[in-house]
């Protein structure tokens, strides 16, 4: 009788022990099933307190960069306006100011990326130390901080396009001045001086043609090509005329008569005004300068969108 009672008690004890072990195992499994996350913010509380201020500072830095990019875009648009208006003094000032600002923006963005990479709590197992919301904000910041990486290059393209347009117009206008000087000398029957001025006019037209050959793959050169062709034909007609007058000693020979007709025909094909120069400037601008300004504006939009999402409420 005593043995049976003892066996019953031992069985009850083992059953109780097994039940406790089952509950313990279930608790371990439940604990493993509740890793740090939105449902368990207390588990990442310390890490969140360490990271949150750094995240907020980085958002403020990103907002400052976005403001500078907006200012850079404004400088770009003003540079294009000065280029079209052929205001070289304003253009040079805007390009220099923009170059400094673009370099400053890239330096700020580089510093921001370094700060984001060195924030406390990063690395393997970050899910155990930092909450999901802060991790998402950090990732969005890191993505946005890459956007300004090409701004210096974009500004360099704008500078290159603006200077190309300025140089082209300088060459074409210089050509016209030299050609006019040639006609003035010819009126005084100083044909040697007239031919000398034509040498200068043709040199400037040659410089413009060489610049055109470098731009042909990036812009529409149709208007420029026609401008160069017609002015080149007129220069050739003037040279023929002044050479004929010089060789004839000022007498009207058949060669002179033929040269007069050729000069008149070439002159009638010249542009009636300088509006074509504005078209040429615009075409050169579209070849790089305009695109550079568009890229700056796109960068600004990316940064402002990120800041709008990342800034704390209120």
Please provide a written account of the structure.
The protein is mainly α. It folds into 2 domains: 130 residues, no CATH class; 130 residues. It contains 9 helices and no strands. The longest helix has 41 residues. The termini are far apart. About 9% of the residues have low confidence.
- SSE order, one letter for each helix or strand: HHHHHHHHH
The fraction of residues in strands falls at under 5%
**What is the residue-averaged pLDDT?**
82
Number of helices: 9
Shape field: rod-shaped
Number of domains: 2
Head-to-tail CA distance between termini: 79 Å
Number of strands: 0
Largest sheet: none
Q: Give the class from helix and strand content and strand pairing.
A: mainly alpha
Helical content (DSSP H or I, runs of 4+)? over 70%
Q: Could you name the ranges where pLDDT drops below 50 across 5 or more consecutive residues?
A: 12-39
Compute the CA-based radius of gyration: 38 Å
Entry keywords:
about 325 residues
State the gist of this model.
The chain is mainly α and 314 residues long. The chain has helices spanning 2-32, 45-85, 88-117, 132-145, 151-187, 191-215, 222-248, 254-268, 275-310.
List the helices and strands and how they pair.
Layout: H1 2-32, H2 45-85, H3 88-117, H4 132-145, H5 151-187, H6 191-215, H7 222-248, H8 254-268, H9 275-310
Helix pairs in contact: 2-3, 2-4, 2-5, 2-9, 3-4, 3-5, 4-9, 5-6, 5-9, 6-7, 7-8
């Amino acid at each position: 009788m005593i043995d049976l009672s003892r066996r019953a008690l031992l069985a009850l004890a083992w059953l109780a022990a097994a039940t406790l072990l089952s509950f313990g195992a279930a608790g371990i499994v439940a604990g493993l099933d509740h890793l740090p996350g939105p449902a368990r913010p207390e588990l990442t509380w310390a890490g969140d307190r360490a990271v949150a201020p750094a995240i907020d500072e980085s958002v403020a830095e990103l907002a400052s960069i976005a403001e500078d990019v907006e200012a850079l875009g404004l400088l770009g648009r003003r540079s294009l306006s000065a280029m079209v208006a052929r205001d070289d003094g304003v253009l040079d000032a805007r390009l220099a100011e923009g170059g400094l600002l673009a370099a400053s923006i890239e330096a700020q963005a580089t510093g921001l990326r370094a700060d984001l990479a060195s924030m406390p709590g990063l690395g393997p197992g970050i899910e155990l130390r930092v909450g999901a919301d802060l991790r998402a904000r950090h990732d969005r910041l890191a993505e946005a901080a890459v956007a300004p990486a090409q701004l210096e290059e974009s500004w360099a393209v704008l500078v290159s396009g603006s200077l190309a347009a300025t140089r082209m117009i300088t060459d074409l206008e210089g050509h016209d001045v030299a050609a006019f000087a040639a006609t003035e000398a010819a009126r005084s029957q100083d044909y040697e001086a007239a031919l000398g001025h034509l040498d200068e006019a043709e040199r400037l037209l040659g410089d413009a043609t060489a610049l055109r050959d470098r731009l042909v793959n990036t812009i529409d050169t149709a208007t420029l090509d026609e401008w160069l062709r017609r002015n080149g034909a007129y220069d050739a007609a003037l040279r023929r005329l002044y050479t004929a007058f010089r060789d004839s000693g000022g007498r009207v020979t058949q060669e002179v008569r033929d040269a007069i007709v050729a000069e008149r025909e070439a002159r009638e094909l010249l542009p009636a005004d300088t509006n074509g120069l504005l078209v040429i400037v615009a075409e050169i601008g579209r070849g790089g300068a305009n695109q550079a300004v568009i890229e700056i504006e796109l960068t600004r939009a990316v940064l402002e969108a990120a800041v709008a999402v990342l800034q704390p409420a209120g």
